[in-house]
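Support request from a user on the community tier.

User writes: "When I paste my structure tokens into the form, the page sometimes reloads and wipes my input. The last time it worked, I copied everything first. Here is what I submitted, just in case something in the input itself triggers the reload:"
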């Protein structure tokens, strides 16, 4: 049990390294989400489509969990709660199998800056986002993230500010698989996807003003609550071990805390 907790703890250390690079990276042209995107996600869309593209050999984990649910339903249930998909009568389309995702050719490049990733993603056959049809684009690449001239091999994912683009660095996720096993790696991949969607829809203070005091300004667009998926994890935090323990014991699938949910839900009024 102790070693299992440690494994989860280590993967979370990697998991939350995303935010620093996506929101504090001076090379990202716009750090916060734009009012146009926010308006569509929170007020006007009646369809929300998550498009997943993956490079050859950077394929996302798919399949079913022990409880019979698809891995991608973990993502789906958290996004449904965050955006009140069912209450708003939104048609929500997200993939659960590789057949529902698009495979693209592998490019021989190991390091990617956010500008290069935007260019690369814009060249994909992206669905048009507009006020009634909300779209989030997720791209799984083999390479690592590069920012300020430094390759950040611990970064699992980024949200590119002011766009509807999310990038997952599969090589970094595969390292978790090697070190901690498939189960932990799958959970990490789903969690980082949920975390990046949080940024995409303006959390925390990334376009959506917080309703309560929970913005961890020292760490970019993150939540001060160590029990929330939007938390920035400090190394050695005993609070995080507690979060993980709670997750394992309860099997609770809701990863956003009430403060982050309240921020999102306040936008729908
Ligand atoms: Zn983040
Ligand atoms: Zn939160």
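"...and here is what came back when it finally went through:"
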């Amino acid at each position: 049990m102790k070693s299992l907790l440690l494994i989860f703890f280590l993967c979370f250390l990697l998991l939350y390294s995303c935010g620093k690079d996506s929101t504090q990276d001076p090379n990202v042209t716009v750090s916060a989400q734009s009012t146009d995107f926010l308006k569509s996600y929170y007020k006007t869309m009646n369809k929300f489509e998550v498009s997943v593209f993956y490079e050859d050999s950077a394929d996302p984990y798919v399949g079913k969990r022990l409880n019979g649910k698809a891995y991608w339903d973990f993502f789906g249930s958290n996004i449904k709660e965050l955006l009140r998909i069912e209450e708003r009568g939104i048609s929500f389309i997200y993939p659960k199998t590789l057949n529902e995702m698009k495979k693209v050719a592998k490019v021989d490049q190991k390091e990617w800056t956010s500008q290069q990733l935007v260019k690369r993603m814009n060249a994909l056959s992206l669905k048009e986002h507009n006020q009634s049809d909300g779209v989030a684009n997720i791209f799984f690449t083999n390479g690592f993230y590069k920012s300020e001239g430094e390759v950040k091999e611990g970064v699992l994912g980024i949200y590119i500010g002011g766009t509807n683009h999310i990038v997952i660095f599969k090589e970094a996720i595969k390292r978790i698989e090697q070190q901690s096993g498939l189960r932990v790696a799958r959970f990490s991949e789903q969690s980082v996807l949920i975390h990046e969607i949080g940024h995409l829809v303006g959390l925390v203070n990334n376009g959506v003003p917080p309703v309560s005091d929970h913005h961890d300004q020292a760490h970019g667009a993150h939540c001060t609550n160590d029990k929330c998926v939007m938390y920035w994890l400090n190394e050695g935090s005993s609070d995080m071990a507690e979060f993980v323990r709670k997750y394992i014991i309860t099997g609770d699938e809701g990863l956003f805390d009430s403060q982050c949910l309240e921020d999102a839900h306040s936008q729908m009024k």
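Agent notes: The reload is a front-end session timeout and is unrelated to the input. Residues 1-17, 19-30, 234-245 have pLDDT under 50 and may be disordered. The pocket of zinc ion (ligand 2) is lined by residues 214, 223, 225, 228, 230, 256-257, 259-260 (CB under 6 Å). Escalated to web team.
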